[in-house]
Amino acid sequence: MRAATLVRLAGRALGRNKMRSFLTTLGVVIGVAAVIAMTAIGEGAKYRVQQTFEAMGTNLLIVLSGSSATGGMQGGFGSQPTLTWDDLRSIQSELSAVKAAAPVMRTASVIQAEEQNWTTSLVGTTPEYFQIRNWSVSAGQRFSPEDVTSGAKVVLLGQTVVEKLYGSGANPVGRTVRIKMVPYQVIGVLAKKGQSPMGSDYDDTAILPVTTFQSKVQGGLTKFLTGAIFVGAVSPDATGRAQQQIAGLLRDRHRLGPGIDDDFSVRNLSEIASAQAQGTAVLTTLLASIAAVSLLVGGIGIMNIMLVSVTERTREIGIRMAVGGKPRDILTQFVAEALALSAGGGVIGIAVGIGAALFLAHQFHWPTIIRVATVLVSLGFSALVGVVFGLYPARKASRLDPIDALRFE
Amino acid sequence: MAPLISLEDVSKIYRMGEVEVPALQHVTLRIDEGEFVAVMGPSGSGKSTLMNIVGCLDRPTSGTYRLGGAEMGGLSRASLAEVRNRQIGFVFQHFNLLPRTSALENVELPLVYAGLRTRERQERALRALDRVGLADQASRAPNQLSGGQQQRVAIARAVVNEPRLIVADEPTGALDTRTSMEVMQIFQELGAAAGVTILLVTHEADIGRCAGRMVSMRDGRILGDRRQAPLRADPARFPLPAVEASA
Question: Looking at chain A, which residue has its C-alpha nearest residue B102?
Fold first, then answer.
């Protein structure tokens, strides 16, 4: 039998029982729609996690100084300054897996503009910081290494700070703000970065050269770095290596013999990021497999209806055989019908699934990503379901005896 | 000339669990090309079994069946289907048309399995419908046609692939006398015009007399086999039934 005829035949047979065909496909429709929607949500969640961690900084490691012990009470990491400026320079220059390193000193302080004031997180650092954190300016410019050397009284403001001091959308570049009574020139506004993975606002900050920070905001110890060192590894894969290299270097520099605990800690944020991404991937797989099960149930529904259909149409099968339909022709006819049911359900399911994903994205602002591969795989899988579950009823039909089939009432 | 149909010592035994039921016992029968043969006998005489074997729907338990000189016994189901498709046309008592399918498409069915293109199928099916006088009813479904019309559609389907043999199982069993005669008239025309061999199973004497040869059966055996002057089927001899007249 010709393929075009086969397709037409299947379409006609299913068209005769529209309601039944529709209800039969419904299982596959729901299965495919669920697979599409679930993976879209899963992929979206994964993408959001990636975005968040990318906002945090690429290939980021944070080196914190050690803990202090006073009267038997152990302070947290960073409570005892053990990192020195020389440590920073060594990390910057000696390690192959490290691309850049920047000191980060932090304190909360009030910033005063002409009319408003706002308490924010004040950060003293060097230009490498922007590179490590992947952070650009939306207006003005970053401060230069020369500004760091000279201790220039310049400041970069985060979006939230700009909004609080000047109202949203204002461009404060060139204006003057005061921090602890000292005037600073605003030389740039940082690009919007949003929320950190822990929920704090990246944009609620003001950044000054580290030297200025030390001399004007928080008088520090000259030798020790009272804060953290942010390190950017050369690539995402290199974060583990960078972590080991930093630990080795610092143990060496701090002359820690074997068996003595580190007096610093290196946090590998990429690891946390990949763990999170893995978590969402597991979730996606789980959701998709639940959805796939419903697709399977849909397939069983198709088999059920095809079996009913074969019985109902026994006489038709007999007629077809009598006029020259070979067993193979009968087989392909019924497989084609099952395939049409499941593939048709697949197409509708894809439309419904994409619709559902878009609706969720629109209504609840969930990020959803629909991948072409997912759509094609679902379509292929639903077609496969049709063939697999259609085969048994079709075989049954093709094995009927023409005489018995013709006599069937 | 070799006969078109040649049955040599053909038996058919059905197994019903432990019991063996012989439906045909040592039947030998030859039918030449172009003959119009009526097989008569009461129910259970084995005439339907004979017809199924001749029509390649069934295979004999023993003995040989040759159609056009070719042995049919060893053929696979698929090969038998091909023989039915190319060489045999079927007409059944209950028409056996596909429901909710137009007359044209019903007639097209054998050509679908012959692998013809849509266009050629439609042309040939329409010609076959024209032959039985139903070209104007081509788009109607069986339930929109009268019994006689349905049987004529079935005959069109049987002849559409230009078979050498038409096998008709009680073709008039579900029809009134006048319509039966109309159908028999078509069979006679087919035999005369196209030289088609016709094997017709019936238990009605009137119908049997329309054939040129009468084979009578009982208990799976052939009792009699004689040639006769066929009675010309003439529907005009019978009054129009009321329902048909208004249709």
Answer: A12
A262, A288, A310: which is the final residue of a domain? A262
How distant, in Å, are the alpha carbons of A121, A175, A218, B247 from that of A180? 13, 17, 10, 108
* Pairing mode of beta strands B213-218, B36-40: parallel
User: Which of B235, B232, B174, B238 shows the shortest CA–CA distance to B204?
Assistant: B174
Residue A234 belongs to some domain of the structure: yes
Kindly state whether residue A365 falls inside one of the protein's structural domains.
yes
Q: Structural domain tally of chain A?
A: 2
Q: CB of B43 within 8 Å of any CB in chain A? A: no
List CB contacts (< 8 A) between B55 and chain A. 322
Q: Which of A122-126, A224-228, B163-167 has the lowest mean pLDDT?
A: A224-228
Q: Which candidate, B183, B172, B48, places its Cα nearest to that of A406?
A: B48
What domain range is A307 assigned to? 3-52+275-407
pLDDT 10s digits, A154-178: 999 999 999 889 988 788 898 999 9
User: Alpha-carbon distance A337 to A296, whole Å?
Assistant: 17
Residues of chain A found within 8 Å of residue B118, distances taken between Cβ atoms: 4-5
Give mean pLDDT, residues A210-238. 82
**Domains of chain B with CATH codes:** 5-236 (3.40.50.300)
Global pTM value:
0.73
Q: Name the more confident of B2 and A153.
A: A153
Contact criterion met (CB < 8 Å) for A327 and B78: yes
Shortest distance between the Cα of B108 and any Cα of chain A, in A, equals 10
pLDDT digits (tens, 9 = 90+) for A45-75: 888 877 777 777 768 888 888 765 555 666 6
By C-alpha distance, the chain A residue nearest B88 is A323
pLDDT tens profile B111-129: 999 989 989 999 999 999 9
pLDDT bracket for residue A261 (50, 70, 90): confident
Across the interface, whether the CB atoms of A320 and B109 are under 8 A apart is answered: yes
Report the residue from B99, B113, B157 with minimal CB separation from A329: B113
Torsion angle of the four alpha carbons A302, A306, A308, A309, in this order, in degrees rounded to the nearest 10: 140
Confidence band of A1 (pLDDT split at 50, 70, 90): low
Q: Residue B48: closest CA among chain A residues belongs to which residue?
A: A403
pLDDT at B245: 46
